[in-house]
Design a protein that fits this description.
The structure is a single chain. A hairpin with a 2-residue loop joins strand 5 and strand 6. The protein has 4 helices and 6 strands; from the N terminus they run βαβββαββαα. Strands 1-2 form a two-stranded parallel sheet. It has a two-stranded antiparallel ribbon with strand order 3-4. A two-stranded antiparallel sheet has the order 5-6. The protein has 2 domains: 74 residues, no CATH class; 54 residues, no CATH class. Helix content is 30%, strand content 15%. The protein is α+β, with helices and mostly antiparallel strands.
């Protein structure tokens, strides 16, 4: 009886890293044996932190800063567009914070002028107060956020 070894690979997560690993397993550059991995993903769609979801005519990007390339020739950009053949779209950010029935452009701290005078002054006072005292040791996230950014 022949003892055949089967290569079995399970990849946890269909995010950028998982999909990249799967790509290189299926397409070995060194001429090695191609392996078809089994990918497990907890979400309904692949992409992990690099996905966009469409809801009610709006696009929600989950990338954060992950796919913000400073250089046009970024190695990740080359890999995604070249190896994975995914067409990346360049777009300008149009993010705002809705507060006090006003849309304040992101980043908030640079656009306090959009707020009423008393709220603007309160933001600056709160920030200066927490800047001097710092967050207490063992602070909860809420305590840390209020101590870092004010109320």
């Amino acid at each position: 009886m022949k003892n055949e070894k089967k290569d079995k690979v399970v990849i946890l997560g269909a995010g950028l890293t998982g999909l990249t690993a799967a790509h290189f397993l299926e397409n070995p550059s060194s001429g090695g044996k191609a392996i078809k991995p089994f990918i497990l993903e907890k979400q309904d769609i692949a992409g992990g932190l690099c996905r966009t979801e469409e809801k009610e005519g709006f696009s929600f990007d989950h990338t954060g800063h992950l796919l913000h390339f400073k250089k046009k020739d970024s190695i990740w950009k080359k890999f995604i567009e070249g190896e994975l053949r995914i067409d990346l779209k360049k777009h300008s950010r149009a993010a705002s914070i809705h507060i006090m029935n006003t849309l304040v452009p992101y980043p908030f701290q640079y656009h306090l002028a959009y707020l009423p005078k008393d709220e603007k002054e309160k933001c600056v006072r709160d920030y200066l107060k927490v800047y001097k005292t710092g967050a207490p040791a063992g602070a909860s996230f809420r305590q840390w956020a209020e101590h870092s950014f004010g109320r």
